[in-house]
Amino acid sequence: LDTCERIVFGEEGWDDVPISRAVNASSALPMVYRPVEVKGRHLVDGGIRSTTNVDIAVERGAKFVVVVNPLVPYVNDFQKTMPTVVGSRTRRVADMGYPQVGYQAFKLLAHQRLHEAVSHWRERYPGVDIVLVEPDPNDELMFETNILNFSKRVEIARHGFESVTLKLANDYDNLKSVCERHGIEISLSRVRKVTDEAEKVPEKTRAWRRIFEQTTGALLRQSEQG
Predict the structure, then answer these.
(1) Neighbours of 177 (CB within 10 A)
(2) Measured between alpha carbons, how far is 195 from 164 in angstroms, rounded to an integer?
(3) What is the pTM of this model?
(4) Which of these, 77, 74, 61, lies nearest to 144 by C-alpha position?
(5) How many domains does the chain have?
(6) Which of 12, 77, 115, 183 has a CA between 20 and 30 Å from the CA of residue 85?
């Protein structure tokens, strides 16, 4: 925070920092969490300097990078209206309150920076495939839900899981060709199976935790076999 330099945990001089402490510092979003002191330095979320820091992975040999970016500005649906004293009018982002206005502005800045950075990286690293996974710009649930709302964790986890799985299915042909370039095999039937199973599961934390664990377990087994 004092020198504005990027600190990379794992590099020489920073390779003895516990993972828990590193995650704590890497999540210290200014104005939300206080800076975290590590080795006499006050550290904040690295996304302030670079949205994803993809260059760190690429410079260490990564050829296939998947970027999960939830910070997509919300595109308001002008078909939706809200009641007024004299009838109704179009609902706008400003009607959602001051926090959402700030959130929208923050997302606009972050999203623009990210896409400019991705274009730059693709030119700079022509042999690297960078895949962006983002919510739809009209995803109202993702925009209106407070990310710190613990009671909404299952609903958001389920929504994110389903929407990303659907995106994978819709963009399967392109993703398959990208993965094949790196010796990775993906299965459309597996994606469809997960989607079908998700639709049958009730809104219970335990049930969704089981789905997440099963999916993660399958991915780990595939990586071990590869």
Answers:
(1) 10
(2) 10
(3) 0.69
(4) 74
(5) 2
(6) 77
